[in-house]
Amino acid sequence: MSLFDLSTLTEFTGTERYYRISRRHLLTDGTKYLAEQAQCFWMMDAIASHLMEIGTADWFVVVKTMVKNAAAVMVYEDGNGHEHARQEIPYTDFPLAEITLYACWDGEHWVIMLPSEY
Predict the structure, then answer these.
(1) Are 74 and 64 in contact (CB under 8 A)?
(2) pTM of the model
(3) What pLDDT sits at residue 1?
(4) For the chain, what are the domain ranges?
(5) Helix (H, G, I), strand (E, B), or coil: what is residue 76?
(6) How many C-beta atoms surround the C-beta of residue 105 within 10 A?
(7) Cβ-based neighbours of 100, under 8 Å, separated by 6 or more
(8) Which superfamily, per CATH, for 19-117?
(9) Residue 84 and residue 61: Cα distance in Å, rounded?
């Protein structure tokens, strides 16, 4: 696994380019960097699948991933503490104890981004 410095993620503000991971889901420069460096495209796929289930009535979703003992829990919220969904990941080698990502509906796509890119 590639090691990366968590502080590097805060350097991403806005994005210069979007990267398609499905017909309706895009990554920003920051989430693409995260997926590549932490080898966690699985996380982006999990987010995309849950966003399809949540739908677009709530255009903003907070995704919190917490890792403990090589297992993870992903919680999808509306930003006000209301939980849309929760997913247990039985094994992961994700290098961070936790990370929060945002997803915003732009009218055509879900854009998955780092909080610093919002």
Answers:
(1) yes
(2) 0.93
(3) 39
(4) 19-117
(5) strand
(6) 18
(7) 62, 63, 64, 65, 115
(8) enterococcus faecalis protein (3.10.450.150)
(9) 9
Token pair 């890792």 in the structure block, residue: 67
* pLDDT tens digits in sequence order for the chain, 118 residues long: 345 667 789 899 999 999 999 999 999 999 999 999 999 999 999 999 999 888 877 799 999 999 999 999 999 999 998 999 999 999 999 999 999 999 999 999 999 999 999 9
CA quadruple 85, 69, 10, 30: dihedral positive or negative? Answer: negative
Residue 27: closest CA among 100, 89, 112, 101: 112
Q: Which two tokens stand for residue 69?
A: 């003992």
- What is d(CA 84, CA 62) in angstroms, rounded to the nearest whole number? 10
